[in-house]
Design a protein that fits this description.
Layout: E1 2-6, E2 13-17, E3 27-37, H1 39-45, E4 56-57, E5 61-69, E6 81-84, E7 87-88, H2 94-97, E8 108-109, E9 121-125, E10 129-131, H3 138-159, E11 167-170, H4 174-186, E12 191-195, H5 198-207, E13 211-214, H6 224-229, E14 234-237, H7 242-251, E15 257-260, H8 273-278, E16 282-285, H9 291-302, E17 312-316, H10 321-326, E18 337-340
Parallel strand pairs: 11-12, 11-14, 12-13, 14-15, 15-16, 17-18
Antiparallel strand pairs: 1-2, 1-4, 3-5, 3-9, 3-18, 5-6, 6-10, 7-8
Helix pairs in contact: 3-4, 3-9
């Protein structure tokens, strides 16, 4: 089968011919129908997020069809249409037991620690699969697994946004555009989109943002949009740079919450200690999601509450992933999310070979 693999940091990814993996025990074999390209994938190839070993098949936003089940796999049948929760968790640590599975002490990520979905086929634990409602296409379901579920986790679990509360969305790429739509469903008002890209802001407005502000004016208290929107309670930073965290902290009202989703190796800037204390502002991180949040998003999609097609920037094949990752986040980017469709060929028994021993290249 074809698979997009990273052999070492800084080398870019390449399409390799590799054996089709076989499911064992509680795993299933999935034919990948669609996989989203995420900023986390770009972080992996540039070394910001080092992997434990290489080569690795990337891709963690996946939807597909079950082709084969392991002898102990339960709850899923061959032919099932499923979305993949990429976080493999232990189910036993204090975080899993309390329902905060994204913080599992033994978590492993598909496309990170185990091979992911930029391939024609992949192996997934059966417990990590979520059935896709009949009305939801694979392209949409793939984005439900991270692009939407990560934003929902930040909105509902971390910030606990209520109807009528004002929100800022900093960075309206894939996650930010998802957040705009989810905030609209939740009844937030106003919803203020902030980005350096005018096309991204235009797209955010079409998907439910009520106001837009160019990134260069975010710190300008006299900008007309601030006067029209008032003082928001929540800010969601999908960029995560020190300057965006600081600007978001200053922009929220007293008692406001800043939820940072974007990863950065740098320390955050917030505000002086007196302001943080006297105005009771909170800055917090938000990581990934729980399985139930993927289910919630798929439910929204099946009810027609989310416009997914408008936020799909482009659809590419496996051969185009290297170029898409190399230009990710560049100026003049294609707004929205990039989807990969592997277009897998038919399985033959000869495709199942013993996998080669992975080369070990620590970064």
């Amino acid at each position: 089968m074809k698979a997009v693999r990273l052999h070492r940091v800084g080398s870019g990814v390449q399409v390799d011919e590799v054996p089709v993996p076989r499911p064992t025990s509680e795993d299933v074999l999935l034919r990948v129908e669609a996989a989203g390209l995420c900023g986390s994938d770009a972080h992996i190839i540039n070394g910001r997020t080092p992997l434990p070993d290489y080569p690795r098949i990337l891709g963690h936003e996946v939807a597909g069809t079950v082709c084969e089940t392991g002898p102990s796999a339960a709850g899923v049948e061959v032919g099932a249409r499923v979305a993949v929760n990429f976080l493999i968790t232990c189910g036993q640590c204090r975080y899993c037991v309390s329902g905060r599975t994204s913080l599992c002490l033994s978590r492993e990520g598909l496309g990170v620690v185990r091979d992911g979905g930029f391939a024609e086929y992949m192996v997934v634990p059966a417990r990590n699969l979520i059935h896709i409602p009949g009305a939801v296409p694979f392209r949409h379901a793939a984005l439900a697994t991270d692009a939407f579920a990560t934003s929902l986790h930040a909105i509902s679990k971390r910030a606990q946004v209520q109807a009528g509360e004002g929100c800022i969305v900093v960075g309206v790429g894939g996650l930010g555009l998802s957040a705009v739509q989810l905030l609209k469903i939740r009844g937030a008002y106003p919803i203020i989109a902030v980005d350096a890209d005018a096309k991204a802001l235009e797209l955010a407005m079409s998907l439910g943002a009520t106001h837009s502000i160019p990134a260069s004016a975010m710190g300008d208290e006299n900008h007309p949009a601030w006067a029209a929107a008032g003082s928001p309670i929540h800010a969601f930073d999908f960029v995560g740079r020190p300057e965006t965290v600081q600007a978001a902290t200053h922009a929220v009202d007293r008692g406001g919450r800043v939820v940072v989703v974007g990863h950065s190796p740098n320390s955050w800037n917030t505000a002086d200690g007196s302001t943080m204390v006297r105005e009771e502002k909170t800055v917090m991180g938000s990581y990934a999601f729980d399985k139930n949040e993927i289910e919630d998003v798929l439910g929204f999609m099946s009810r027609g509450l989310i416009d997914v097609d408008t936020m799909i920037g482009q659809v590419i094949g496996l051969d185009d992933v290297d170029q898409a990752l190399a230009t990710f986040g560049a100026s003049g980017r294609i707004p929205g999310r990039t989807l990969v469709e592997p277009a897998a060929g038919a399985l033959t028994e000869g495709a199942f070979l013993l996998a080669e021993e992975p080369e070990r290249t620590m970064s």
